[in-house]
């Protein structure tokens, strides 16, 4: 795995809007940029697509990001507002740290605390390409669903919990008993849906939010999300995609 170690993000607000690559995602342009990024990180373009990159230390990453291709919506990620990439391109490393939110495997809601802890600042976003959906407006909404979660402990067995919350309100969570490694156990989803309202400008992200993430035990958590929106009488569904958090491993 490759670790990204250079800080680029300069945003200061909790909810940030960015200009991206343009209103519509262009697969060829995206592939070209991904290839350049891969070379800059010492990887071939093929390697960049073949294996996920570990995000270690402070970086701003909209880990669960929704994109419109011109005919469908898809789930992916955007690191440091540089390039939207398909889901599975990154893993998030979560060490045990201490800060204003307490001690443990915590990704804080605010940028300042993420910087102080030197952990990734993980958010949710709707790429500005979503404005390309016919009928999209500031009143449009998109629902993100947590459809499944698995956990492989670092050591031993026991109950594991993952929670994503904003200002004390839980958006997503999963919790359950996990067998000792090498087994991977399913964690029942206990809170699995959040609806975002489009609120950006015509050339900005349609939504952008950050939550506090808390993981109860060390191990590997795989969270599966899907997305759905109905705009202009047409329903668009993004197929479920998996996102990996490497916690204390």
Topology:
Elements: E1 3-4, H1 27-40, H2 45-50, E2 53-55, E3 60-68, E4 73-79, E5 84-86, E6 90-94, E7 97-99, E8 102-107, H3 111-117, E9 121-126, E10 141-153, E11 158-166, E12 169-178, E13 185-186, E14 189-197, E15 207-210, E16 212-215, E17 219-231, E18 234-247
List keywords for this structure.
five-stranded mixed sheet; globular; 249 residues; 18 strands; 3 helices; disordered N terminus; mainly beta; 13-stranded mixed sheet; single chain
Number of helices: 3
Instruction: Pick out the low-confidence regions.
Output: 1-50
H-E order: EHHEEEEEEEHEEEEEEEEEE
C-alpha Rg (nearest Å): 17 Å
Helix content: 10-25%
Number of strands: 18
**How would you state the average pLDDT, rounded?**
84
Report the sheet with the most strands, covering strand number, pairing sense and barrel closure. Answer: 13 strands, mixed
Number of domains: 1
CA-CA gap between termini: 13 Å
**Structural class determined from secondary elements:** mainly beta
Give the overall silhouette.
Answer: globular
Beta content? over 45%
Offer a concise description of the structure:
The chain is mostly beta strands. 11% of the residues lie in helices and 49% in strands.
